[in-house]
Amino acid sequence: MKNSKSKSILVLNGPNLNLLGSREPEIYGRETLLMIERRLVAAGKAKGIKVECFQTNHEGVIVDRVQQAKRDGVEFILLNPAAFTYSSIALRDALTAVQIPFIEVHLSNIHAREPWRAHSHFTAVAVGSVLGLGSRGYDLALDYAMARLKTG
Ligand code: DQA
């Protein structure tokens, strides 16, 4: 009988990312969030790693989800904070409180857009960031996270 929890990674997406596919496709692409999430779950499954996905438009809900992740023993988070990137000290504090390592993912290159998009509250406390590679950014971040979990 398995007595240890299987390794798990949480993919967290913030506000308006539920609209991927139809939201400004010239910036964010035509893939839906469900398509991206299914691919990530399958990639995890192929390596024996549980990938859970969660999206919300609400700040308190994402903070609660991060706290829940700690209780669940989640070992790594991929986070696209979306507009919370610029506003949510509460989410940043939740991440530093739980001390779960995370990668910040943005589909678009936030440095090549409006100047106010360039400063993220998360970059300084993330393991690293992936920007401007569209939905591939999630896959690349997941590869890194899985390699890191495998090597302990
Ligand atoms: C985004 C970039 C943010 O500036 C924006 O508010 C988003 C999506 C991205 O994935 O490119 O909602 O995080």
Strand content: 15-25%
Q: What is the average per-residue confidence, as pLDDT, rounded to a whole number?
A: 95
| Amino-to-carboxy terminus distance | 22 Å
Bound chemical compounds: 1,3,4-trihydroxy-5-OXO-cyclohexanecarboxylic acid
SSE order, one letter for each helix or strand = EHHEHEHEEH
Indicate the low-confidence ranges by residue numbers. Answer: none
Taken from the alpha-carbon principal axes, the silhouette is: globular
Please list the strands of the largest sheet in the order they lie side by side: 2-1-3-4-5
Structural class: alpha/beta
Portion in helices: 25-40%
The CATH class label is Alpha Beta
Q: In the CATH classification, which architecture applies?
A: 3-Layer(aba) Sandwich
Count helical runs.
Answer: 5
Any idea how many domains? 1
CATH topology: Rossmann fold
Q: What is the CATH superfamily label? A: Dehydroquinase, class II
Radius of gyration: 15 Å
Describe the sheet with the most strands.
5 strands, parallel
The number of distinct β-strands equals 5
Task: Walk me through this protein's architecture.
- It is built from five helices and five strands.
- With 152 residues, the protein is an alpha/beta fold.
- It has one domain: Dehydroquinase, class II (Rossmann fold), CATH 3.40.50.9100.
- A five-stranded parallel β-sheet has the order 2-1-3-4-5, sandwiched between helices.
- The longest helix is centred in the C-terminal third of the chain and has 15 residues.
- The chain is globular and about 40 Å long.
- The site of 1,3,4-trihydroxy-5-OXO-cyclohexanecarboxylic acid (DQA) has 10 residues, from loops.
